[in-house]
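Support request, please re-run this one:
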Amino acid sequence: MLDLFERYRCVTNRFSVLSTDQLNQIHAAFSPEDLMGVELVLQGKEMGKPKALAGRARALKERLSAVKDGDATVESESDHTTIACVSGFLVNMPRRRVQLVTPVPASGRWPLGYRIVDERFFGTPDEFRDEVQSMIDVHMHESPPPNRPIRFRGDLQYEAKRHHFLLRSCHFEYQVTDNAASSVGDLIAGGRCTASELVAQVVTDGASAIAVADELDQLHIRGLLEEDLDERFAWRNGEGTT
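Re-run finished. Output below.
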């Protein structure tokens, strides 16, 4: 891997370090110059860096909680987010499977800490290419799909203001300009219309179709609109399962 990095200067390598002993072995085997292209991700118990409560760790917490009659004995997940660090394609070559994934906080819906947007199987390089292109065409929209319900991300709290609205997550606050006669923010927060229905309603009240479409595009680009629309897992007033 280091030879490939030295030859092609590709993206930085990431290496999970599971203990202090392992870290010492790495430094004994490789010089600082050798590790210039390697990010050592410290994951051991001694490292003091919290892990995302996902996968086997989440399953263990659930088992311990059941044993203790609901009293979980491991650290709260409230400060954790996800193990995933990329939106893109996750390829399993032995199973010839390609998944389109994106990070989400680990939950009962997505216990591994990433949402599986789509999954395909392939047998040849050409099939792999075709499946990837198909997922791009189906899921990677430059604008909100006109006939799908439009709503804010489930973890965002909506607050209307004069000529703008606020969207708050546990870590960030987003301020969005909203000058339409019928508030775009109110309509999205209501979650009862598609993108095309929303544009039609606001335009009927005198707003510019171009301006409203641009506002929706900006919300889409900033990742503030919900994409996981399975009603079985929909949030209700800020509470639910993603």
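Residues 157-233 form one domain. The chain has three domains: 2-49, 88-139, 157-233.
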